[in-house]
Amino acid sequence: MQRITREQARKYAFDWRDEPLIRVECGESFDIEAHDASTGYFKSSADKAIPALRPGFDRHPPLANPIGGPVWLEGAERGGTLVITVEDILVDDYSWIAIGPSRGPLGESTRWPELSDDYTTMIFRHTPGSSGTTRDGSLHFNERISWPITPFIGTLGVAPDREVTTSFDGQGEWGGNLDCRDVAPGNRIYLPIFHQGALFYLGDVHASQGDTEFTGTAAETKATVRLKLDLIKGKSIPWMRIEKPATIVSVYAYRPLEVAVETATINLIDWLITEYGFAPKDAYCLVSACPDFRINVYQMCKLGKLNPVAGAEIPKRYL
C-alpha cells in the first residue's frame, strides 16, 4: 500500500505546481501520516504558543497546519468531481489545545485576564479502547472529564484553479482549512476538480472538536489516515459536499456567518433538485418545514483570514 510519510507531509500551501508524492488509481487505498497543526511543536504543557518560539512563525502567513500531498488520481480531469472516502483515522497517544494573548475571541479578555495575560497549553492523554488502539479510545481532558475520541480531518482539498493558497487560513470551493467534524471515517466527501490528476492534499487531524472551534484550536493531534479516491467524470459541483450513512451535508465558508448558512442551504436545495428530482418549490419548502433539517456551524474562530464554516444537513430518508 502506498504511503505519504510524516516527514513528507510538510507542505504549507495548496499549490498546483507541486510534484505529486504518489499516484493512485480509482478505488486504491493509501495512507497519509499527518502531522499535527503545529508540525510537532506542542509536546508538553511547557510548550507555549508564543509566536517568537514557534518555528515558521517568522513568516506571514506562518508555516503552520502542514498537509501531505499532492496525490495524483489517474483519470482525474478539470470539470469532474473528486470523491474521497475516509476509511480509517488512527490518532496519536495525545492531543493538545493552546490559548493565550490575542488568540481567539477571549484573547484580549479583561473579564478573565488569565485567558489573555499568559499562554496556556493543555495536553490531552489518549487511552486505547477494547480494540487495543485509539480507534475506539478515550480522550482525557483532565482527571475527571473524558469522552470518546471522535477523529476527523481538519484540512483537505485539491489544488485551486490558479492561485497558491495557504493551508493555514485558505478556504474555497476546492476545500482548505474547514475543520469540519463530518470529514470523518465512514463518510464520503465530494470536491470539484480544477487540474489534471486532481492534486489532493490532507492534514490537520483533530481527535475531537466542539462546534465552532471557539478558541481557534481543538484537540490537535498526529494521525495516520487511510482513504481512497474516486471520480465522477463530467460533473462539477459548486462546493464541498459530504455524504454520511444517514444524511447529506452541503458545506460553505464565508463571512459573515449568515451568508455561509444561506449559501450552504441554497446549495443543498440545488443538490435536492439536480440529483434527487425535487421540484424547486418542494426543495425550498422542505428545508424550512422539515424538523430534522439542521445547520452545523463547524468553524467560527478568530484566526487569520478564516471564514465561518456552515453545513446544511438533511436525512436521506426524505430523499
Question: How does this model look, in words?
Answer:
This protein is mostly beta strands and 319 residues long. It has a single domain (3-38, 66-318), classed as Acetamidase/Formamidase-like domains (Jelly Rolls), CATH 2.60.120. The protein contains 2 helices and 22 strands. It has a 9-stranded mixed β-sheet with strand order 1-4-18-6-15-19-20-22-21. Strands 3, 5, 11, 13, 14, 16 and 17 form a 7-stranded mixed β-sheet that branches. Strands 7-8-9-10 form a 4-stranded antiparallel β-sheet, with no helix packed on it. The radius of gyration is 19 Å and the shape is globular.
Looking at this protein, list some descriptive labels.
7-stranded mixed beta sheet, single chain, Jelly Rolls, mainly beta
Summarize the structure.
This protein has helices spanning 257-276, 280-289; strands at 3-4, 13-14, 22-24, 30-34, 67-73, 81-91, 94-99, 120-127, 138-140, 146-148, 152-158, 165-166, 171-172, 175-177, 188-192, 200-208, 219-220, 223-232, 241-243, 247-253, 294-299, 309-315. By secondary structure, it is mainly β.
Q: Could you please say which CATH topology applies here?
A: Jelly Rolls
Beta strand count:
22
- The CATH C-level name is Mainly Beta
Per CATH, the superfamily is Acetamidase/Formamidase-like domains
Percentage of residues in helical conformation: under 10%
Number of domains: 1
What order do the helices and strands follow? EEEEEEEEEEEEEEEEEEEEHHEE
CATH architectural grouping? Sandwich
Strand adjacency order, main sheet: 1-4-18-6-15-19-20-22-21
Main sheet overview:
9 strands, mixed
Q: Please state the overall shape, judged from the principal axes of the Cα atoms.
A: globular
- Proportion of beta-strand residues: 35-45%
- Rg over CA atoms: 19 Å
Number of helices: 2
Runs in which pLDDT lies below 50 for 5 or more consecutive residues are: none
What integer is the average pLDDT?
96
Distance between the termini: 37 Å
Class based on secondary structure composition and strand pairing = mainly beta
